[in-house]
Amino acid sequence: MAKQSTLRFGAQTDEVTSLLRVVNLVRTHEASTRPEIGRVTGLGRGVVTQRVDQAIEMGFLEDGEFGPSSGGRAPRTLRFRSDRGRIIVCALGALHIHVGVTLLDGDVLDAEHRAWDISRGPAETLDTAMGMIDELLARTPDVPVWGVAVGVPGPVDFGTGRPVAPPIMPGWNGFDVRRKFAQRYEAPVWVDNDVNLLALNERARRRDEHADLIYCKIGTGIGAGLLSQGRLHRGANGAAGDIGHVRVRDSDVPCRCGKTGCLEAVAGGWALVRDAEQAVADGSTGHLARWVSEGNALTPEAISRAAEDGDAVAISLVQRSARVVGESIAALVNMFNPATIVVGGAVPSAGEIFLAEVRQRVYELSLPLATRDLTIAQSVDDAREPLRGGAEMVREQLFDVTFPRWFAAGRPTVGGIFVDAA
């Protein structure tokens, strides 16, 4: 328990600021010994000792092994107490629920996945997800939950944690997702678009805190997560990157959002399923036709696998999706000038069949300066990507954004995060 009498937490004093920085330096591995902290911060030896002792007393840091000697006595290393709390991540997709639990270092301890149609609505979906989470909590270390991340496949007002008119999530508009989880787990909750979690995972995976990166997900729907100098660009209301509903030139295909000609209605996974079903009904032969004749349902994943296996209809559909998506990505490249484009989701899992078309369109339509050092790559296609990304979001919000509000108490609380937030 913190000795609040020794620190003035009403305002962020120099003492508090330096203590926060010391904890975060050790947490992020920027400094691991007292001498290193002194060199990075410019604080005197006595002040560093005092701040470290305070952080140890409050339970954020602990002494580790002795480090290498530079000629004198070997310094003792410091470690952040990542085992003091757990992070819950619930990544909802159009057709699945994926949940996981991590410690404060963000490494996934345990995870569960279940096929699920998100159109079944928020009450049933979240009850099912929380049942899965409770099973994970029972199997992981019994320490308090410090934060919860929820990713959803649609637009989210990040400030309130409520989905806003999500096209593929009927019944979810304005639903208070945050409150449902906060009441259950008595911890602060952050809700975001699922592709933003994937972008944060890429930042962590690449260990690039200043990444200029766009993650473009082409699954059942289409969206993009935008990182500028390592920070997510959510826009004024959280709608940044929702390229799935950008108008495609010369298209009048109806979209599930109620408009016509949207990118998602032409190139998204559900659009490919629609067009593949029509092709099979019109008498096409090959892998997809056999798949359907055997009683299997067409999915974006099935179409991508068929394309890899040489099915002519599947290849045509995947390449058409890639060309149209590439045109939209080219516009993002011209506007944001990222260093890296990562494409992921069910449709790009067709590999080079998809990626080659995207590259061609981007390089054809983007400015030479914007593409001079541009890398376009496929995601690693790891099922735990959104879980790691969700943990990264919680860690960022806890330790970079809200830390001064709650660290005197030794752990975050729901009120300590949200009551004072504007």
Automatic annotation (TrEMBL):
PROSITE patterns tied to this protein: ROK
Xref: InterPro entries: ATPase_NBD, ROK, ROK_cs, WH-like_DNA-bd_sf, WH_DNA-bd_sf
Pfam entry (one): ROK
Domain of life according to the entry: Bacteria
Record protein name field: ROK family protein
Family: Belongs to the ROK (NagC/XylR) family.
